[in-house]
Design brief:
Low-confidence stretches: none
CATH superfamily: GSPII I/J protein-like
Number of domains: 1
Strand content: 25-35%
Shape: rod-shaped
Mean pLDDT: 91
Structural class: alpha+beta
Number of helices: 1
Oligomer: single chain
Distance between the termini: 108 Å
Helix content: 40-55%
Length: 124
C-alpha cells in the first residue's frame, strides 16, 4: 500500500513560519520608525508656526523684544500642546536693521525644535 502525500511536512511549515515572522518583524519596525519620524516632523512644523507667530507679532509692534543677551520667554498653547519660546533682538552692522532670534521648545521636551531668524527694519 502506497501513500500519496500531497501536504507539507512539519519542518516546511516551521521554516515558512520563521520566514514570515522575520518579515513581519521588519515591517513592524519600519512602520514604528515611520510613525516616530512623522510625529517629529509634526512637532517641528508646529514649532515653526509658533516661532513665525512670534516674529510677526514683533514686526506688528504687538510684542516688545529686549536686546540680547536679554530675552523674552513665554509659553503658548497650539493644538493642545504647550510650547515655550524665547526671543531677543540682536544688533546688526546696519543700525537701522535688527535681527530677531526665536527659539521654540516643546514644554514636555527641552530639546530645541525650531530656531528662526528674521530681520526688522527699525529706523533710528
Amino acid at each position: 500500500m502506497q501513500r500519496n502525500n500531497t501536504g507539507f511536512t512539519l519542518i516546511e511549515v516551521l521554516i515558512a513560519l520563521a520566514i514570515l515572522s522575520i518579515a513581519l518583524t521588519a515591517i513592524i519596525h519600519a512602520t514604528t520608525q515611520n510613525i516616530k519620524h512623522t510625529v517629529y516632523l509634526q512637532n517641528r512644523t508646529i514649532a515653526t508656526w509658533v516661532g513665525t507667530n512670534v516674529i510677526n507679532e514683533a514686526r506688528a509692534g504687538m510684542l516688545k523684544l529686549p536686546e540680547a543677551p536679554d530675552h523674552v520667554s513665554e509659553e503658548t498653547t497650539v493644538l493642545g500642546v504647550t510650547w515655550t519660546w524665547q526671543a531677543a533682538l540682536n544688533m546688526t552692522p546696519n543700525k537701522n536693521i535688527q535681527q530677531i532670534d526665536v527659539t521654540v521648545y516643546q514644554k514636555t521636551n527641552e530639546a530645541k525644535l525650531a530656531h528662526l531668524v528674521s530681520y526688522l527694519y527699525a529706523p533710528q
